[in-house]
Amino acid sequence: MSTNLVLLAILMFAVTYPTRAVGLLTPGLDRLPKIAFDYLQLVGPAVLAALAAVSVMVVVGDDEVPSFHVGIEWVAVFVALAIVAWRRNLFLGLVAAVAIVAIARAAGLAEIPA
Amino acid sequence: MTTTEIELRASRRQLLTDSTGLAVGAVGFGFVYGLTAREAGFSPIEAVAMSLIVNAGAAQFAAVGYVASGLAWPGIILLTALLNARHLLYSAALRPWLRDVALPRRAVMAHLLTDESFALSISHFRRIGRTDEFGYWLAAIGPDGIFTWTLATLAGVALGAQIPDPGRLGIDVIFPAAMIGLAVGLITGRRELVAAIVGAGVAVTVALVSSPSIGIVSGGILGPLVALLVPKRVAAETAPLGSLESADRYFMPDSHLRADMPADPATADGPDR
């Protein structure tokens, strides 16, 4: 059984733990420039939205060339977004997204990814 | 039993109830994380180690996507650091409440600091108007804590093998749906919304002319920069550390002194008590 990615987990911990500990363990964090905190506050939504958008809208073919993709996944992700925004329930959003894609693919309305 | 003790117990019960509600989502999310990790080639040991060692759902889910797309480890680590940078805000906000806890225990508390444990514990502290170390541990290792998350991961990665042809079941859409769902949870104002929209737009554009991984990094860096140009007064949520607004929101004594706010949380007289 592979354990190679355990090292990656440790490295991810190494960059995550300081962000969690610095405020709890050291005084004076609030003396950093305010603009830095403003920026940090905005990184989360930007990175997560970037991940979602690229996952749904960009596919890389066998020739390694990225291309724009339109599919049922757009609808599923939009529905998940709407449910989470409305109900504040991530799990419900995920269930809805999976159901939409599964039904569309079972009905032959959408391609099954390779 | 004194009034203070009654209030403390009531607030802990509230914390436990809230944590149990969140745990339902965490179990489902942990399960699909384990399932997705398995699909991306993670072994059970690797998936579970990630939950125990990193303990950050969004970053872990993102890492699965990075690994699956072949992104090099330095890129994964950089993106993890960016994605988890928001914990700086949480730890700074909790410091005044937990400053009297022994350093070794605070060091452990730091590892258990997540979106959920922060939200649960800061709400608890504000309800009772003082610190409660047990309350923090309840938030961090209670129903919605790290062990639930790790066990759900194990279930997902172990039972995932029983699911034939996951592509037909739509498992592949879980990752983008989870990412956008988590992003929604972080959008509390116009600036965050602009950061998300610009981040997504830049990411897709750059990905189409270069590669998905470069696009994601570009969106994650440029989205917040553009969002900073949005005038602060139009944002619904503007509570940077050091401001009176953040003091009002998190009631951060000591680091956010104001004329009408006592420095000691134990003696503070907040508006909601």
How would you portray this structure in words?
The complex is a heterodimer of chains A (114) and B (273). By secondary structure, chain A is mostly helical. Chain A has helices at residues 4-25, 34-57, 72-87, 90-106, and strands at residues 58-60, 66-68. In chain A, strands 1-2 form a two-stranded antiparallel ribbon. In chain A, a hairpin with a 5-residue loop joins strand 1 (58-60) and strand 2. In chain A, helix 3 runs antiparallel to helix 4 (90-106). The longest helix of chain A has 24 residues, at 34-57. The mean pLDDT of chain A is 86. Chain B is an all-alpha fold and 273 residues long. Chain B has a domain at 3-186. Chain B is 68% helix and 0% strand. Chain B has 13 helices and no strands. Chain B has helices at residues 3-39, 44-53, 57-69, 73-83, 87-98, 103-111, 115-128, 133-141, 146-159, 174-186, 190-209, 212-227, 244-250. The relative contact order of chain B is 0.13. Mean pLDDT of chain B is 80; it is low at 234-244 and 246-273. Chains A and B meet through helix 1, helix 2, strand 2, helix 3 and helix 4 of A and helix 1, helix 2, helix 3, helix 4 and helix 5 of B.
